[in-house]
Specification:
The chain is α/β, with parallel strands linked by helices. Helix content is about 45%, strand content about 10%. Among the domains are: about 40 residues, no CATH class; about 250 residues, 3-Layer(aba) Sandwich (Rossmann fold); about 55 residues, no CATH class. The chain starts with a helix and ends with a helix. Bound molecules: iron/sulfur cluster.
Length: about 525
């Protein structure tokens, strides 16, 4: 692979000439060369940085083993701690922002009501959007599934002889396996979002819907960039790495044949759509080349422009704890002399709309707040889910794509309900997770051992006398049984934990003794 940094190494080609001002008294000189400020400021790396744990191993349609991948993530303490703290920080910032908006709960209810209203009349609003978008000069396509989406985009690019495509972050295109498809037909895709570009260069999927590389330490990024962009492997300074990526990618952006964006909200009334970013990269993707293609999931429709404010106020506050994204770019039609195409993608959404217990998952605005608050997600990393969507929202969306493959995921939750509490569109996430567990048992997608254990537990818990007798027997057994009987391969719970010492008195017996069974 060529070395774009080397090519861009001409210092006069720097995008930020202030980085190498000649009379900078703070400049650090090495071998007669001035180091850019970030290089100069960086600290040496830890001699042996912790290796980045990789995501779930995928074996065809076999159920993804989230627990196995999570165990590997937990076994990398620097990564686990950083991931947990970074996401908890986002959750706390979200809380601060929320407390600054007295009408927060009203906004959530309104957002939920608008989405539910739209979803129950989705066909009408989609047609309204299509008609208005066409009037604005946009060519509208409909894609039944991921394969059709990819074929349509390929057809548009072929029609323009396009060989390279710059693209802003879009979970829908991840869902469609778009980059792999484009690689197979010889079209180069360049991600313009920094986190997504890091993941692309590392040949990894995004691990979070908003911050795709949040599971990586700086040292991981330094390793990826040194192998792909030719940066100094010993330099993990964030400014140095970001600038190196910019120097390498900007020429590719300027030379790209076509641009692609996703969409946060598509307004039926105006036929326009909005993309929210913090880097302005959607504007680069949409405005630098003459050809702009937008992939839009059909659930992104909102009826009127006046509804946009409700969602924009909620989105970034919930996602990152900031009042709004740096950019909320509105796209109305092709630029002068250009072309704009919109691909409206179903890919299982119509089917999900018909699922009585799960249709409201289509209200999701992909803010990631449920992931940031989830104790399982924070400590196991997004890639442990082995699916496009991870965290609580993933647990209820992924099985709609493939119930067998993702049959373990709804069990990766403590059902504490924090996800539902933070969700800006009031999706009853934890209830849907629980509903999926029952659904998977009904569909025989749960391992027999787990099913039998759950059945036995259910029967025991429904008979108070038998339950109390079993607890008394277990307490006695735990005190006397040899260790290998309790901690063995069949006891997954005991792999990482000690069974607590049983109390001398159960709550029930204390209650009987002290309250006489009366409340
Ligand atoms: S389910 Fe709710 S909290 Fe989770 S990503 Fe979607 S909108 Fe955000």
């Amino acid at each position: 692979m060529s070395n774009p940094i080397g090519q861009a190494g001409d210092r006069h080609a720097m995008l930020h000439p202030e980085l190498h001002a000649e009379h900078d008294s703070d400049a650090i000189i090495r071998n007669g060369q001035r180091l850019d400020h970030a290089e100069g400021a960086s600290r040496p790396l830890h001699s042996r940085p912790e290796k980045q744990p990789r995501g779930a191993k995928i074996h065809g349609r076999r159920p993804v083993d989230q627990a196995e991948a999570a165990a590997r993530f937990i076994a990398a303490p620097e990564h686990e701690k950083m991931h947990d703290e970074r996401l908890w920080d986002l959750r706390q910032k979200r809380d601060r922002e929320m407390h600054g908006i007295p009408e927060w709960e009203e906004l959530r209810s309104l957002a939920s009501a608008i989405k539910e209203h739209t979803l129950t009349r989705l066909d009408e609003y989609l047609e309204e959007f299509e008609s208005n978008a066409r009037s604005n000069g946009i060519t509208v396509h409909w894609a039944r599934d991921a394969a059709e989406h990819n074929r349509i985009v390929h057809g548009i690019l072929n029609g323009h002889g396009a060989k390279s495509l710059i693209k802003s972050k879009s979970m829908l295109t991840e869902e469609c396996g778009f980059r792999a498809y484009m690689a197979s037909v010889g079209i180069e895709v360049i991600e313009t979002d920094l986190g997504e570009r890091i993941q692309q260069l590392d040949n990894e999927d995004p691990s979070h819907v908003v911050v795709p590389a949040v599971h990586k330490l700086r040292t991981d990024v330094a390793e990826v960039f040194s192998g792909t962009l030719g940066t100094d492997p010993g330099n993990s300074d964030v400014h140095y790495l970001a600038e190196a990526q910019r120097q390498a990618t900007r020429p590719l952006i300027l030379a790209a044949d076509a641009g692609m964006t996703g969409c946060n909200f598509a307004v039926a009334e105006t036929g326009t759509f909005v993309v929210c970013t913090n880097e302005g990269n959607a504007d680069l993707s949409a405005n630098v080349p003459r050809l702009h293609i937008a992939s839009i999931g059909i659930e992104k429709i909102i009826p009127r422009l006046e509804h946009l404010g409700v969602f924009v106020r909620l989105l970034s506050r919930s996602a990152l704890g900031s009042p709004m994204t740096q950019y909320a770019s509105h796209f109305r039609g092709p630029r002068a002399g250009g072309e704009m195409h919109v691909v409206l993608v179903d890919n299982g959404r119509s089917e999900r709309l018909g699922l009585e217990q799960f249709w409201t998952s289509l209200k999701c605005i992909r803010c990631g707040a449920c992931m940031n608050t989830c104790p399982v997600y924070r400590r196991s990393g997004g890639l442990s889910y082995g699916a496009t969507y991870s965290g609580p929202i993933g647990l209820i969306i992924d099985p709609t794509f493939n119930a067998r493959k993702y049959s373990n995921l709804p069990f990766a939750s403590s059902l504490n309900g924090s996800c539902s509490n933070v969700c800006p569109v009031k999706i009853n996430i934890h209830e849907q997770i629980y509903a999926w567990r029952r659904e998977l048992v009904k569909r025989h997608e749960v391992p027999l051992v787990k099913k039998a254990a759950m059945k036995a537990a259910g029967e025991l818990l429904s008979r108070p006398a038998a339950y109390r007798a079993a607890i008394a027997a277990a307490d006695a057994a735990l005190a006397h049984l040899p260790r290998f009987v309790i901690y063995n391969g069949l006891n997954a719970w005991g792999k990482h934990r000690e069974v607590p010492h049983p109390p001398e008195q159960t709550f029930h017996s204390w209650y009987q003794a002290n309250r006489g069974g009366k409340s």
